[in-house]
Amino acid sequence: MSGGEYRYVWRIAFRNFLNSFRPRQIRGNEIGKDYIGNVYYEIPADPSRGKRKPARWYDPPKGLDFQDPLPSEWESWLRMRRSEPPTNEEISKNLAIAETKKLNADKLEAKRLADGGSLPTTLERGPQSFPKYKDFHVGDIEDDHRNKY
To answer: Is the per-residue pLDDT at 113 higher than 80?
Structure first.
């Protein structure tokens, strides 16, 4: 055993270790962009390489982070709940419905306040005890039996 076949193993391991610190250059197909400015990407599934599901992700715009909420249509696409990305018509339709709901809620609130309505109040309750039953014995049951007999 001259060790010739193992000579380059340490070099390869060291090179892989150093390369692990470099950011990966993942290239995906740009699928779409939402009204917030998030850009959505996908790498399609490739069963010949053993990849059954597509990889999906998004990049938020500058100044925003990943904690900001996503539009529900795009979130369902990211989580594989839908196979096709949302269309612009679908997104604009859902935004119009949401705006209509907000306007209707504002109208109802204004009508309620005009009728002299007030916010519902919560009932204040004091400390409540547990229910008391005839069959329920307080204290040691054995003492009750001893005193009776």
So the answer is: yes
Alpha carbon distance 24, 30 (integer Å)? 17
- Using only C-alpha atoms, the chain has a radius of gyration, in whole angstroms, of 33
- Token pair 């018509």 in the structure block, residue: 89
User: pLDDT tens for residues 4-54?
Assistant: 556 678 888 888 888 888 877 677 889 999 888 899 999 988 888 888 889
C-alpha 44, offset from chain centre: 23
Closest-CA residue to 37 (of 59, 8, 15): 59
**Long-range pairs, 64-68, Cβ under 8 A, ≥24:** 64/36, 64/37, 68/36
pLDDT at 1: 46
Q: Within 13 Å of residue 148, how many CA atoms lie on the same side as its CB?
A: 5
Q: Any bridge partners for residue 51, and if so which?
A: 46
E strand map for 2-141 = 29-33, 39-43, 55-59
DSSP-based three-state secondary structure for 108: helix
